Q: What sequence folds into this?
């Protein structure tokens, strides 16, 4: 799973998908996750970063990250590689 | 190293379309304290969920209501509607303020007696007064509001040959321009049923007709309907005086005043559409004062308002059990209270606040209760901050009917506390235990001992 490269992202959490014209907003934690995904960080790397820097436990973050990535996928902001599709 | 504060990540699609022109504001200003008490600490002490009543708000609301009426009409008496909230401590706050008791069953009647309300200050309403209840009410000299002819004849039989003269009124239903008309209670004004009942009472010579009563509906958003009702009851009272030379001592306009809750389907929040006590008082007082009574024949005005006097004083505190994502992408939050104890969520969009601070971001959320039932929905749609497990919420304006209509269904009913005028909390109803239910059950002997094979 990768964040689509052509998606525009602002520092305030505004997200724009030029393919569909859809726009979204996200909160600061969501924005950081999206930025890390855009830089090709894996979910494991994102988890490690948040557990180190934020007051959150592993199980809570794991649940939240899974849900958030699911929402990105639902909004068609991610693309899956062939291996994942199979 | 101090770690940064974490808030669950959320993302929302921005929709361009028609906006709600009424522009209701988001509801997530945190409520961390109630009358000086930290919500978190109250829940630690008394458990979650928890009903909280503010004595300060009850007394202030009662004063606002009585001021509205007493500044417009010379003789006013409130009677606390037991069915709205009959926890004894609540009733006694109202009685201490000067309220009589208004009851609608033998059970409520006994509660009022238990609360040391003098018999002649208990108003007995409702269609289900059993023989034993009526005997008790007659014995104590209570005001019996007759609902139907079967009740009238039962009272006649009970007092036949005796010396007691029951003090009675009839409940009158009427067209006040409001739909639905509550004509299932009492005797109709327009078609002559009320006159028929009055004639029967007056000609029986066995009871004293002391009042006339009506209760035109519930959550009434139109004060003018009360003006119509007051006018019709006044004309009836004047006609009785003329025909029988009998003074009607009081007119009882019942209750039904709206609280500040928001009815489901309403675009505008309740706080913006519910009439004030002054508006109700103006409509009622003006009608009676203009009806044609002489100064010494003006009847006492009795009001049985319940909901409008207690709703704002009640809060329900609860906790988040879990969050999940529905198949259509909406966020669902499961709370530890549902329609079992928040019965009014069937018809109100209750205002619900988080009990801790959050950032500015919110997410469209469905709030579910904990019951294993699909109908257990507390709010079908609310813009809410990203709560996590064990976060706490405060539901507002729940003082009316929830603590009487709540169900012991699937779970036990929670504790109720009241915060006094000095901001000290008091337990006024204990959290139920399994014994609260098991103690009432009886096991037939043949089902007591067996082994599951």
A:
């Amino acid at each position: 799973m990768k964040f689509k490269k052509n998606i525009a992202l602002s520092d305030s959490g505004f997200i724009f998908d030029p393919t569909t014209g859809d726009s979204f907003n996200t909160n600061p934690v969501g924005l950081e996750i999206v930025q890390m995904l855009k830089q090709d960080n894996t979910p494991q790397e994102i988890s490690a970063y948040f557990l180190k820097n934020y007051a959150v436990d592993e199980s809570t973050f794991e649940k939240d990250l899974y849900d958030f990535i699911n929402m990105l996928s639902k909004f068609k902001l991610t693309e899956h590689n062939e291996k994942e599709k199979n | 190293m101090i770690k940064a504060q974490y808030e669950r990540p959320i993302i929302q699609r921005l929709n361009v379309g028609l906006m709600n022109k009424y522009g209701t504001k988001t509801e997530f200003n945190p409520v961390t304290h109630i009358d000086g008490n930290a919500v978190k600490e109250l829940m630690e002490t008394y458990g979650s969920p928890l009903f909280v009543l503010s004595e300060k708000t009850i007394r202030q609301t009662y004063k606002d209501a009585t001021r509205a009426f007493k500044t417009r009409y010379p003789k006013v008496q409130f009677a606390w509607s037991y069915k709205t909230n009959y926890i004894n401590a609540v009733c006694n706050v109202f009685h201490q303020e000067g309220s009589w008791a208004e009851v609608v069953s033998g059970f409520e009647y006994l509660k009022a007696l238990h609360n040391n309300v003098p018999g002649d200050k208990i108003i007995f309403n409702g269609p289900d007064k059993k023989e034993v209840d009526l005997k008790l009410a007659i014995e104590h000299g209570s005001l019996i509001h007759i609902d139907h002819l079967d009740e009238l004849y039962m009272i006649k039989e009970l007092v036949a040959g005796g010396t007691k003269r029951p003090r009675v009124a009839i409940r009158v239903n009427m067209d006040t321009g409001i739909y639905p008309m509550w004509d299932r209670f009492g005797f109709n004004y327009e078609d002559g049923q009320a006159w028929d009942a009055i004639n029967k009472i007056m000609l029986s010579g066995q009871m004293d007709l002391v009042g006339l009563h009506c209760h035109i509906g519930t959550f009434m958003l139109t004060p003018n309907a009360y003006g119509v009702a007051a006018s019709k009851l006044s004309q009836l009272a004047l006609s009785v005086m003329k025909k029988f030379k009998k003074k009607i001592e009081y007119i009882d306009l019942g209750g039904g005043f709206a609280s500040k809750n928001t009815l489901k389907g309403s675009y505008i929040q309740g706080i913006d559409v519910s009439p004030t006590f002054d508006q109700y008082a103006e409509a009622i007082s003006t009608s009676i004062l203009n009806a044609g009574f002489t100064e010494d024949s003006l009847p006492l005005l009795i009001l049985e308002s319940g909901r409008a006097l207690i709703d704002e004083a009640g809060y329900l505190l609860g906790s988040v059990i879990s969050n999940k994502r529905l198949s259509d992408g909406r966020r669902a939050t499961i709370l530890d209270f549902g329609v079992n104890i928040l019965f009014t969520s069937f018809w109100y969009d209750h205002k619900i606040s988080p009990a801790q601070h959050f950032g500015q971001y919110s997410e469209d959320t469905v709030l579910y209760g904990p019951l294993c039932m699909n109908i257990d929905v507390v709010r079908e749609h609310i813009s809410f901050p990203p709560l996590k497990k064990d976060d706490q919420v405060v539901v507002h304006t729940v003082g009316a009917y929830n603590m009487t209509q709540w169900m012991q269904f699937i779970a036990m009913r929670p504790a109720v506390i009241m915060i006094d005028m000095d901001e000290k909390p008091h337990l006024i109803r204990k959290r139920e235990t399994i014994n609260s239910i098991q103690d009432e059950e009886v096991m037939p002997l043949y089902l007591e001992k067996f082994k599951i094979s």
About this structure: Strands of chain A lie at 2-3, 8-9, 14-16, 23-26, 78-79. The domain at 2-80 of chain A is CATH 1.10.10 (Arc Repressor Mutant, subunit A).
